[in-house]
Design a protein that fits this description.
Blueprint (H helix, E strand, L loop, with lengths): L2 H11 L13 E5 L2 E4 L4 E3 L6 E2 L11 H12 L4 H10 L6 E5 L5 H10 L5 E6 L2 H8 L6 E4 L12 E7 L5 H7 E12 L5 H8 L3 H4 L4 H10 L4 E10 L5 H7 L13 H5 L3 E12 L3
Parallel strand pairs: 4-7, 5-6, 5-8, 6-7, 8-9
Antiparallel strand pairs: 1-2, 2-3, 9-11, 10-11
This protein binds zinc ion.
């Protein structure tokens, strides 16, 4: 099946997930190449085969190059232990799962292959068009769209699980689309995350060479006082030739004061620490 046909079939079968970004009424049906809400607002499947739900311009710095670099590292296994941990936390029953800030889609692809549950309904969205274009090309049995996490184009209580890897959050929207008892898993970097790369880029600038996640963790705890925390920490051996991709994929190097690394310095980077926390909560607890 062509990717545009696959995406359209998914929407037809799961039309009750979606709501109109203009008037918030439920989406009613697929007509020809469009999805139409109860009040007649219409969004077309674009030439890449996905739906674009943003009503205004997107503010994102993530371009195609960053996503290609990220895919290269993720296919090499950079985040595989994290995805395994996430898969282990999810219930076994068939799930309607939303991947928040899905990027180019590889984490969702890895999650789909670990779950092996063909009754799962998997949806990934991102604000970045280059990311979703790449994700749609994966040919997964999942649906991808461009959307804003602060204005989710989904009806209330439609998802059993929300997963987000290094993405910002909007807990009001998350609680709205999660079903009662639904599960939220947020992955945040700990201070040791990619420490070797940070030290190369920022040297002794302590403020930049360490990441402090306390504010993010505290905010999560405020919303979900009974949440669980799980640390996942390991060393990742960087495949030769992928050092540059690692620098490219991480937004760290946009921070002020990052040095331009020489090829020789990059060569010294053979292993990096991946250190993250899984913040796990259930809606209503
Ligand atoms: Zn509408």
């Amino acid at each position: 099946m062509k990717k545009s046909e696959r995406q359209k079939k998914f929407v037809q079968e799961n039309i009750n997930l979606f709501r109109c970004p203009t008037c918030q009424a439920p989406m009613a049906r697929v007509v020809d190449n469009s999805i139409v809400c109860q009040n007649g607002h219409q969004i077309d499947f674009n030439r890449h085969g996905y739906l674009h739900f943003l009503t205004g311009a997107a503010e994102t710095e993530y371009g195609r190059e960053m996503f290609c670099a990220r895919r290269q590292l993720l296919e090499s296994g950079l985040f595989t232990p994290i995805i395994k941990e996430v898969a282990g936390v999810l219930p076994d029953k068939p799930l309607r799962l939303l991947d928040v800030g899905t990027g180019e889609g590889t984490p969702l692809k890895q999650l789909v292959s670990l779950r092996k549950n063909d009754r799962d309904v998997m949806v990934g969205f991102d604000i970045s068009k280059p990311g979703i274009t790449l994700a749609t090309q994966l040919g997964l049995r999942a649906f991808f769209c461009v959307a804003d996490l602060r204005k989710l184009p989904f009806n209330d209580q439609r998802f059993d699980a929300l997963v987000e890897l290094f993405s910002p959050s909007d807990y009001r929207e998350f609680n709205r689309v999660l079903a009662p008892g639904g599960c939220l898993i947020k992955v945040v970097p700990n201070s040791g995350y990619l420490a070797e790369l940070r030290q190369l880029l920022y040297g002794k600038n302590q403020a930049k060479s360490h990441y402090d996640n306390q504010r993010v963790v505290n905010l999560f705890k405020q919303h979900y006082p009974n949440c669980q925390l799980k640390q996942v920490k390991y060393q990742f051996t960087i495949p030769s030739g992928q050092q540059e991709a690692l620098v490219e994929m991480t937004p760290l190097h946009w921070g002020k004061g990052a040095r331009q690394l020489t090829a020789k310095e990059l060569m010294t980077l053979t292993r990096v620490t991946v250190d993250v926390s899984l913040l796990i909560a259930k809606k209503g607890e």
